[in-house]
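User: Show me a protein chain along with its predicted structure.
Assistant: Here is one chain, sequence first, then structure tokens.
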Amino acid sequence: MVSKINRRAMSHKYIDIETLDIPDKTNRYLVIDLVRILDSAPIWVVTNFLKNNQINIESRKKEKLMETVVFSLLNSIDISDINDYHNELIGKYDRMIIDYNKRDYNGILGTCFLHEHFEKAHFDIVNNYSKPKHKNIAFWTTCSSTKPYLISDTFNKIFAHLKDKVDNNLDNIHWLVVSNASAPIPEEYHRTFPFYAYECDLRSLNKKEIEIYKTTTIERLHKYLNKTEYDFHIAYMRPNSIQAVIMKTVMDELDISYIVLPTQATIKKIKSTKKLLWDFQGMKTKYSLDELVFTINNLN
């Protein structure tokens, strides 16, 4: 079932969809997600996965292990049951990865953006990653305390609203996160190590460390945007957040026009409705979400 294994893609934590011969479209992406999760996990997670499925391990090199994972997923497991298997693996192995992350970053939670794992991941994004060609709308957000980001209450509601209300541009949206672990983090990396699970609280940093965070993030965004073009940029962030300030600095320096949402008019409307509504629900209120949908539907 496998046409070939792209070794170079393996080594960069990506599996080229075109190298996997999976007839069913839904199952195709579930398999890709499974492989990406394991490819981004520590080696011991991958070996445990193979052992638990009674699959022989001929080599402990990560690349060889991942080849074995791909062949076993496509040849040893009933594809018709892949959805259940996907959910089982997510539930079982994400906890292992989360535990691994918390041990590894214990004591450096504030400055995790300088940790070697994040340094390597951001280097890969800036130097090796290319966005999907059809994704011409950059949708910039901050991160969430819940990881992966999409399962957080805020982002779950945002994307459910977009899926329900956006007319023709939904497939063109490219979600990029400006997180406490620096930026950019394209959506393809959200379920990969180390972004899959981490704790990084900027409130624990002193002024000097905050400046290092700003400088580091601005530099990484500069490099990414100098090589990556979008037709439109939307920054969906609280205007007083450190990430919003960073975005403004970068966009001004690169002379890139972008749309800032929610607008001040919408924020004022939310605050006038209920005093604490903006503080606790601002980005996922109907006012903010409807303004976002209207903006996306009218991009031209």
